Amino acid sequence: MNQNQMMAQVRKMQAEMEKAQQELAATVVTGSAAGGLATVEMTCDYQVKRVKLSKEAVDPEDTETLEDLLVVAISDAIHKAQETSATRMSSLTGGMRIPGLM
């Protein structure tokens, strides 16, 4: 393979990765806690879009439980965003782990 072909492949891969990153930024995952008492919608570039709490989750006398529910829901959303991102990027890199992408 000559250098021009290699550079063309690199540019193509860069364009595909940029497109994938844009798609992931628009992809929303939902994390939840306690069977949906708290849910968090987050994009795969980790932007929280929505937090939803059921009335049953809100007890003014017990804010610690609500805080815990939010931590669990956010952590769940982050995990799902990471999995979605890893799967999408893996399809571009052929399973190769490239630092900074996953």
Summarize the structure in words.
There is one protein chain. With 102 residues, this protein is α+β, with helices and mostly antiparallel strands. The chain has a domain of 67 residues: 2-Layer Sandwich (Ybab, Chain: A). It is 54% helix and 18% strand. The chain has 2 helices and 3 strands, in the order H-E-E-E-H. A 3-stranded antiparallel β-sheet has the order 1-2-3. Strand 2 and strand 3 form a beta hairpin. Helix 1 runs antiparallel to helix 2. The longest helix has 31 residues. It is rod-shaped and about 70 Å long. The model has no long low-confidence stretch (mean pLDDT 90).
Give a summary of the structure in a few sentences.
The protein has 102 residues and is of the alpha+beta class.
- Strand order of the main beta sheet, please? 1-2-3
Beta-strand proportion:
15-25%
Q: Can you name the CATH architecture of one domain?
A: 2-Layer Sandwich
Under the CATH scheme, which class of one domain?
Alpha Beta
Rounded to the nearest angstrom, the distance between the terminal CA atoms is 28 Å
- Proportion of residues in helical segments: 40-55%
Mean of residue pLDDT values: 90
Structural class: alpha+beta
Q: What is the strand tally?
A: 3
Could you state the order of secondary-structure elements as H and E? HEEEH
- Overall shape: it is rod-shaped
C-alpha-based Rg, rounded? 19 Å
CATH homologous superfamily identity of one domain: Nucleoid-associated protein YbaB-like domain
Tell me the major beta sheet. Answer: 3 strands, antiparallel
- Count of helix runs: 2
CATH topology of one domain: Ybab, Chain: A
Low-confidence stretches: none
